[in-house]
Specification:
Structural class: alpha+beta
Low-confidence stretches: 327-349
Distance between the termini: 22 Å
Shape: globular
Mean pLDDT: 86
Number of domains: 2
Strand content: 25-35%
Order of helices and strands: EEEHEEEEEHEHEEEEEEEHEEEEEHEHHE
Length: 349
């Protein structure tokens, strides 16, 4: 694999004097960018012109990480040309969370052949139920196919996100790239680092990813109690207190659920994935050191399958809640990368 990572800013343009000559039918161009850049098409048009035969995938973010820097109002770009690995791009439209399962099933059907090794998925960040999207993918793809990815961001605004479709930033899109053949090695890792606090509560009323009541009390009221003055900033400030969820007392593993929207009239909260009725949930808050160590551990785990000094691309996907929970430098300063191999090209949204 031949690999290049670079960035674009409106003030400085592209960080390389010329765009790398890596265009091919098996080149993947990943683009992660500021939400507002959807109204400034010039850099995306330049990338499309430079890579007419390549598969271009990308989405809006809550901050762009490239190398050792975090920036806003920029593009972070990776271009990877594969020598022996074939690639394929697929998209599906979503108008609401109700379309999520079918979008996942459609992506899986477009991708599936017996030599499929991995799928990287990016979805609209406001109109998708992540749990249903994954269920749709899993309904088609076998367990041995690695599926990873993330949801598009809009900083703390929760107004509009975009995913590239036909090389243009569009809302209401799920996009994915598939990797095929025995030559590609794909690893993945996921770690948290949030601290549990407060009592564990029972979900007494919910529908899919809509949460109405905890212990018989409106969930939105509970969040407002913990947020205090910050309640005026909902839904963004709810990201400071994500939910840890488990099915029952015997379950040791917990899933993390973050807020997408609130409805004052219905007194409901919309999460990025399901919050099943009857499940147990507990609030969480940031622990800076453990969040950083968790990210490093996820990186180390994802690189277990890398070999020697082969070019390696690490795509780092984080949550805007991590950024909001502390200063950018404290939360995302790469420093010595806590054990991450220096030969890895870190590139993230």
């Amino acid at each position: 694999m031949e690999l290049a990572t670079f960035r674009y800013t409106p003030e400085e343009g592209f960080s390389l004097p010329t765009l790398p000559a890596l265009d091919s039918a098996n080149t993947v161009v990943m683009v992660f960018g500021a939400p507002e850049l959807s109204d400034r098409p010039a850099p995306l048009e330049a990338l499309s012109s430079a890579y007419p035969s390549s598969h271009v995938i990308g989405c809006s973010t809550a901050g762009e990480v490239c190398g050792t820097e975090l920036r806003d109002e920029s593009l972070a770009i990776a271009v990877a040309r594969f020598e022996r690995t074939t690639t394929r791009l697929a998209t599906a439209k979503v108008q609401s969370a109700a379309d999520s399962f079918e979008a996942g099933r459609s992506i899986g059907a477009q991708m599936w052949t017996p030599d499929l090794k991995a799928v990287f998925v990016l979805s609209d960040g406001l109109h998708v139920n992540g749990s249903d999207l994954v269920r749709g993918l899993n309904a088609v793809l076998p367990r041995e196919v690695i599926v990873t990815g993330g949801m598009a961001g809009d900083g703390p605004r929760f107004a509009s996100t975009w995913v590239l479709s036909d090389r243009k930033p569009v809302s209401g899109i799920v996009s994915a790239v598939g990797f095929y053949g025995d030559s590609v090695r794909v690893g993945h890792g996921c770690r948290g680092g949030w601290d549990l606090f407060g009592p564990e509560r029972t979900v007494t009323r919910s529908e899919g990813n809509l949460l109405y009541e905890l212990d018989g009390r409106p969930a939105l009221d509970l969040y407002k109690t913990y947020l205090g003055e910050r309640a005026a900033g909902l839904p963004a400030t709810a990201l400071l207190f994500p939910l840890a969820i488990r099915s029952d007392n015997s379950e040791q593993n917990r899933l993390v659920r973050t807020v997408l929207a609130v409805d004052e009239k219905a007194q409901s909260m919309t999460f990025a994935g399901d919050v099943p009725q009857g499940s147990l949930v507990q609030l969480m808050r940031a622990n800076f050191d453990r969040l950083i160590e968790g990210a490093a551990e996820a990186g180390r785990h994802s690189l277990m399958h890398s070999v020697g000094d082969e070019p390696t691309l690490a795509v780092l996907i984080s949550c805007v809640g991590r950024r909001m929970s502390g200063s950018n430098q404290t939360m995302l300063d790469p420093g010595d990368r806590r054990g991450l191999p220096k030969r890895v090209s870190c590139h993230a949204c």
